[in-house]
Amino acid sequence: MRRLQERFRRFMNHPAPANSRYKPTCYEHAANCYTHAFLIVPAIVGSALLHRLSDDRWEKITAWMYGVGLCALFIVSTVFHIVSWKKSHLRTMEHCFHMCDRMMIYVFIAASYAPWLNLRELGPLASHMRWFIWLMAAGGTIYVFLYHEKYKIVELFFYLAMGFSPALVVTSMSNTDGLQEVAWGGLIYCLGVVFFKSDGVIPFAHAIWHIFVATAAAVHYYAIWKYLYRSPADIIRHL
């Protein structure tokens, strides 16, 4: 690992001090921008497709909730990295967008679970997770607003707790179609966390994390499209 670090030292800076932000190199800034910017249009198109496939008002509302979370994640992330790269002298704006970038992770987690919690039949107790997941997202948003970059381990714990808690409800559904893809997507996210916490240790670590996010989001989108929005008639027609 040390030999690799020396070879790619010009592509990355030293790890950030405790409770401080990592400062990417210009190469890393570019990679951070492009790895999410290229996903904005596919996210918008995919969200519009789910809305078009909706059969009733509740499906349309759910498609809107999921689509907004998906598109906003990539848009806010891209804007933040552009501001951080090109407008580093605007510290207040950069700080604001960095907070929004972190907040969007909570919103995106809630939005990713929304189709499964809204469109699948749940038990009387499990159904409370439909609104509780958004309560957790609101709590995470408030936490970022109050303690941004102060307790990174606590913040990471909140992300993971919010990601795994609804899974206990989703896996208890009587209809388990698509849950294998949900699990695979969750595993990809978890593997990506290794790179999320490796800035200054692995070159382009954050950009690699973006790739893991894109891959996991694609897996989850495929499952939502196939098992929640694509009609059985369409499936039979393409067999």
UniProtKB/TrEMBL annotation:
Topology versus the membrane: Multi-pass membrane protein
Binding site for Zn(2+): H81, H206, H210
A cellular component term, taken from the record's GO annotations: Golgi apparatus
Record-level GO BP terms: positive regulation of neuron differentiation; regulation of protein localization
Transmembrane segments: 31-51, 63-83, 103-119, 131-147, 156-173, 208-225
Localisation per UniProt entry: Endomembrane system
Keywords, ordered alphabetically: Membrane, Metal-binding, Transmembrane, Transmembrane helix, Zinc
Main location: membrane
GO molecular function, one term: metal ion binding
Pfam families: HlyIII
NCBIfam families, A to Z: hlyIII
UniProt record similarity statement: Belongs to the ADIPOR family.
Protein name per its UniProtKB record: Monocyte to macrophage differentiation associated
Organism: Strigops habroptila (Kakapo)
